[in-house]
């Protein structure tokens, strides 16, 4: 029997809400309604009010105080146009920070550069100064088009926000700067104007891949004059998405060379590890890095918050903590009543909707005008819905917003006082990016990380040094992944026939992949080049965000109204027949899922339950790339094939989490070829660890769950990006085996990172299980919210002994001990 743990789309990690009445930490009288705009309480005062309620103070496990920091100025480089400097001064900025001036110097020398400094450190101005200067130079060219610049953002919201900033800054520069957004929401009649007249086009990698590059003859004058390519929030380009974007940028560089341009790449990132090499992998170019942050910083109070245990019990009788969702909704309510402008970042779309809905209901008991000042924001909304929410946030009409990471990447909202993080966002880079949304005008700010009931969050709130004393992660991406490279070589061949001299641009695996594409008759070699052979567009071969195909449209059955979309990879687990779907605070039941037409038909309902998918997973080894002995155990990395099928779903009561029933589903299996790390143990090692055959399945399963939960601490991934399987006797290894695999075709680099940091990763996993105070296992250590087997079987004590024995023979790790200090080595037993 295999125990599986699936990547993205399994189900929401929603434990039951507490049945106890909420005691708010502030008075609900009308004289405590939100104060007038412009009142910004000190972050320590705000936190003191939040913990004033009964039992609240005990929920804070640590408070970190980051003191304010003064700024350091430098002069602008001489080649920046005086009109640009005057416009910057008119915006209230007399002199640049030292890091802004350094980026401008690199840009003016024709050197690609990445600025990796803190949130609100002025990264936008660092690249805008040389870009605007070049656009003004170009506006004086005889042909009238002059220089152009391309801006890439990972989200539409960020591109729209950048356009507002550019228009405000470039207003005094007249028609010399013509910014325009070109994305999926741009009306078709406006797109021609952008192509012909805009000299600063703001778009995203998806549009570059699907629209601009395939239609490059229509963009010829723009590409011919391209001086700068700005890549904002470049740390977001990781894993499969980052690998796709890396190949899109190589296609862009190839077309630019065809039109005679050689643009400079300017990248901006939240503080990241090794940003220069990471930017080089992304662009394929040498990139200078600017990492010393010379901007001033306001005071930041950062609290770690662990929800209390409830009187409820979950699967297998495990103790259950109050959910991060319910706790976040309470805190958002209290902050709104105080008039503290707050964004709550929630890990899932469903969670964001629930936080906003609960907060609105509780605010209605205070004042009927308050619920309208709290909203949800997530991907899948229609464009007009997103824009309306963004406007309300900018104007201050909204006091509170429950948002997914769709809002994380750079929507510059002045005046926010606090940020709530409902669960660890997966990486330290994202943690600081989200926390930096508050206090952006230099004032003090409050950030609160509210732990979910899982191994990583529990570990972090009790090990603050892992957050506050460790550098942020390096960006993991693999542009040579053949599943990524193949469709981009096809797209490049359709854009311009591929020659042998082009292949070095696409990486060392390009020739081998070309041969495979020839064998599949997707490319044909004629003369000195390879040509695309099909009538359909090659750019449609892949979804660069790894969604696995066309998104599923969620349509209201009675009216035909489009409510939004769901990623195809998540459709089996989130919009299967009978699933509960939340949208804008309303509940809908899915009546029919048509995978052929990518449509889920729903009708509005108010069921007293949520739904959770159940599935089965099998895994087979295709190739072992690397193998390392750990005594008699083996640590391996290689290629695997994963077969998964959603077989049923559970209905759980909203209040208690009680299972009301299980319904069978008839959905097709899905097959994934990817990369995995796995480890085996021998019978002698099991005897050493005193693990009986009856306990083996539970020990392996528990170790698998906890190791998946801890991997985001060592690789830039989310637990929903990875999956796992544990098998007491695997047919390919003939040994007890635990697999952890990338949840994306061809792999995403996460399993490889796990392989290279295995001693530290599994050591932290063992420590997290051992340190948990529960008796037999709970969501804070070995239970998983997305387990397809209902967290059965699990054996906490046996898992600790198993990992201790495994790590005893692990190679020396220079960064951390494999077996945590204080652990005893296993003893021989016979």
From TrEMBL:
Annotated PROSITE patterns: HELICASE_ATP_BIND_1, HELICASE_CTER
The record's section on InterPro entries has:
DEAD/DEAH_box_helicase_dom (IPR011545), Helicase_ATP-bd (IPR014001), Helicase_C-like (IPR001650), Helicase_put_actinobac (IPR022307), HRQ1_WHD (IPR055227), MZB (IPR018973), P-loop_NTPase (IPR027417)
Q: Name one GO molecular function term.
A: helicase activity
Identify the residues that the record assigns to the Helicase C-terminal domain, covering every copy. 331-483
Q: Where is the Helicase ATP-binding domain?
A: 104-290
PANTHER family per UniProt: ATP-DEPENDENT HELICASE HRQ1
What this protein is called in its record is DEAD/DEAH box helicase
Organism of provenance? Streptomyces hesseae
